[in-house]
Design goal:
InterPro entries: Leu-rich_rpt, LRR_dom_sf, PP2C, PPM-type-like_dom_sf, PPM-type_phosphatase-like_dom. The protein has 13 helices and 27 strands. It starts with a strand and ends in a 13-residue tail after the last helix. Helix content is 18%, strand content 17%. The protein is globular, with a radius of gyration of 31 Å. It has an eight-stranded parallel beta sheet, with no helix packed on it. Among the domains are: 176 residues, Ribonuclease Inhibitor (Leucine-rich repeat, LRR (right-handed beta-alpha superhelix)), CATH 3.80.10.10; 257 residues, Phosphatase 2c, domain 1, CATH 3.60.40.10. By secondary structure, it is an alpha/beta fold.
Length: 710
């Protein structure tokens, strides 16, 4: 009479025979054997259960699944054979006419199985394998809803195949990532997975941003709506933007995390009145201006979504679940005279006293999160973010032990999800695994003359950085192990930023020959977080200083016109070469440089006869100290710091190039100021001259500290 058997997480090496006598027949329908030591010898014994509908044999030692044995399991509807060493799925799976779910990730499958021939197929997971191509029928199965092909590095799909697969409701494939020329390891990499629960509803969502705000930050999150899909989706789409805004207001971890959750509560609007959701956010940040600063991990959670950190192989909880068993929460709720039902829920709705949504239960239920910050060390291996379903099925020790030896973050997240389902979880599950590579020297050590290890990046993504002749251990970019199509990323590409400010910068910037005999910073050693601007490396800032529309933007300058050093012209735009990095070592020198304020920013003037600046510190090749414009450009050091005058001296372009250029205007009329702006420009120039005269009359030697945009 046995219909259901779950023998997962044991040390089984063999199975008992299915038929004890000729008179008895097995009616077993569901069999879970995940996380055992079963081998190929056990597969023939499964044929004694002809009525088997669900079979889970993930994370065993299977190397093959005989086709003849699969053919006898005709009533099979769901099979999970992930985490083995299978190289193929037998073609006789076509005999299983009722099959709707095939999960075979984390194997060695090289040939795409014929699962697309099954009329009832709904979900196919072939991630983390060795597929090289996909063979599709003329028409996709009508009920196919999900196809996961992530984690197949050899897979190459043509345009026609992609067009067909994009018709699937949930199609996941790795996004092509720009290669890192340095080849340096990343400080963090992540992978995540989601699985629907009862009634095939996906009530969870995940957030992953390897490059959050800038290349030295990351943000990850998991959201669980229990039985509703609306709240997790809203949290996934909104919380990263709210956090980015709060980071501009304060740098205190607890303050910006609490503010993020409180603002999110208001933004839920009507959806948060009677619905709610758990949430956990993990923010990694690093302050490059602090020479002794390390990477800091800040975790904030409400509800039953939690984070654990693996340190020295042991789990370190970073979250807390506020439920009725907490004495302080029970006392607070009783003060508000809320009803506590027998099952430990507030007004019979939720057992979490701190959760997003459920505004009709306020003030008994509040969105204030538990916040914990920790400094990452080389002993930290990875951290896991999981939804309620994951932690209800796996203990923290089991989760750490299960994925500690899995090298790939995506495969680790998949394993956690598979184990939870095999252990009996029927809820939606979401898991994010972030692997860490923090070394001893991963902090800014400009003052220590040391070189820290590679880190995710040194410049914001809105800047096009060209670095050549960099050593092999240069900075690396964090890689995403999952690359799923549903990933929410906060990064802004260089091309997008270029279109915003109107730059027409080319992909291959011109080379500038600098005076190598006079270094910009003589005798100074800098870390890789803030390297010295090399003679053949530079950082390009985008500028929107506009020339006359009659200028040619399609050819190179002629050889008889020498370009202004540090200034690149590309059609109707100007780009200025600058060197921006941590200048704490030069603080004393900077304090002696006069500062004058204007309507458009700060002007730092450095005169040749300035007594506080040594002659060698005058940046002969590239002006590090210059005027910072509102659009991010920096004007090179000149007697006059007006960018319009600098742009006027830019060399003219002659007829030629790739296309026929229009006739060039008269040199005296090469810069056109609109009539409505003439008075404003004259007023600004007049103010600059007056401020410079005042600056010479009143030196700023008495000022101890001031801040500048640089």
């Amino acid at each position: 009479s046995l219909r259901f058997l779950n023998a997962s997480a044991n040390k089984l090496e063999t199975l008992p025979p299915a038929i004890l006598s000729e008179e008895t027949h097995s009616i077993l329908q569901e069999l879970y054997l995940t996380n055992n030591n079963l081998t190929d010898k056990c597969v023939p014994l499964l044929t004694g259960h002809p009525h088997l509908k669900i079979l889970h044999m993930a994370y065993n030692h299977l190397q093959s699944f005989p086709a003849s044995k699969m053919a006898k399991l005709e009533e099979l509807e769901e099979i999970d054979i992930s985490g083995n060493k299978l190289k193929a799925i037998p073609t006789t799976i076509m005999n299983c006419r009722r099959m709707h779910t095939v999960i075979a990730h984390s194997n060695c499958i090289e040939v795409f199985p014929e699962v697309m021939q099954l009329s009832e197929i709904k979900c196919v997971d072939l991630s983390c394998n060795e597929l090289s191509e996909v063979v599709l029928p003329e028409n996709l199965p009508p009920k196919l809803q999900e196809l996961d092909l992530t984690g197949n590095p050899r897979l190459a799909l043509d345009h026609k195949t992609l067009e067909i697969l994009n018709n699937i409701r949930c199609f996941k494939i790795d996004q092509p990532l720009a290669g890192d020329a340095s080849g340096a390891p990343a400080v963090w990499s992540h992978g995540y997975t989601e699985a629907s629960g009862i009634k095939n509803k996906l009530c969870v969502a995940a957030l992953s941003a390897n490059n959050f705000c800038d290349n030295r930050e990351a943000l990850y999150g998991v959201f669980d709506g229990d039985r509703n899909m609306e709240v997790p989706y809203l949290l996934q789409c909104t919380m990263s933007d709210i956090l980015a805004e709060e980071l501009q207001k304060t740098k205190n971890e607890e303050e910006y995390m609490i503010n993020t959750f409180i603002i999110m509560q208001r933004k839920l609007g009507t959806a948060g009145q009677k619905l709610g959701g758990s949430a956990v956010l993990c923010h990694i940040k690093h302050d490059p201006m602090d020479p002794s600063g390390c990477f800091t991990l800040t975790s904030a959670n409400v509800g039953k979504c939690q984070t654990i950190l693996c340190r020295n192989g042991k789990p370190l909880p970073l979250s807390r679940c506020y439920v009725m068993s907490c004495e302080e929460e029970l006392k607070r709720i009783k003060q508000h005279k809320a009803i506590i039902t027998e099952d430990g829920k507030v007004n019979g709705v939720t057992d979490s006293t701190r959760i997003l949504g459920y505004t009709f239960l306020h003030p008994s239920v509040v969105p204030r999160p538990h916040v914990q910050s920790i400094t990452l060390t080389p002993q930290d291996e990875f951290f896991i973010l999981g939804s309620k379903g994951l932690w209800d099925s796996l203990s923290m020790d089991e989760a750490v032990e299960a994925v500690r030896n899995v090298p790939d973050a995506l495969a680790a997240a998949k394993k956690l999800c598979t184990l939870a389902q095999s252990y009996g979880c029927n809820d939606s599950i979401s898991a994010v695994v972030v692997q860490l590579n923090v070394t001893e020297d991963s902090f800014c050590c400009c003052e220590l003359n040391g070189a820290p290890p590679p880190s995710p990046g040194i410049f914001p993504q809105s800047v096009n950085v060209v670095i050549k002749d960099r050593p092999t251990d240069a900075l690396g970019m964090p890689s995403s192990s999952s690359g799923m199509a549903s990933e929410i990323s906060s990064e802004i590409s260089t091309s997008e930023m270029s279109s915003e400010v109107g730059s027409t910068a080319s992909d291959e910037p011109p080379q500038v020959v600098m005076n190598e005999n006079i270094p910009a910073y003589p005798g100074e050693q800098r870390c890789m977080l803030h390297p010295v601007c090399l003679s053949n490396s530079f950082q390009r800032q985008l500028s929107s200083a506009t020339f006359s529309s009659a200028f040619s933007d399609n050819g190179l300058d002629s050889d008889d016109e020498e370009p202004i050093e540090g200034v690149f012209t590309n059609g109707s735009r100007v780009e200025v070469e600058v060197d921006i990095h941590c200048s704490r070592v030069k603080e004393k020198q900077l304090l002696q440089v006069p500062v004058e304020a204007s309507d458009e920013g700060i002007v730092i003037s450095a005169n040749e006869d300035e007594p506080g600046l040594p002659k060698k510190a005058e940046y002969s090749a590239t002006g590090t100290i210059g005027r910072r414009r509102g659009n991010g450009s920096v004007a090179p050091q000149e007697r006059s710091h007006n960018l319009i005058e600098v742009a006027t001296d830019a060399p003219l372009r002659k007829t030629g190039g790739y296309f026929a250029a229009p006739a060039q205007p008269d040199p005296d009329d090469q810069f056109i100021i609109p009539p409505e702006l003439e008075e404003e420009v004259k007023e600004i120039m007049k103010q600059h001259q007056e401020q410079q005269q005042q600056q010479r009359q009143y030196p700023m030697d008495h000022i101890d500290y001031y801040d500048t945009p640089l």
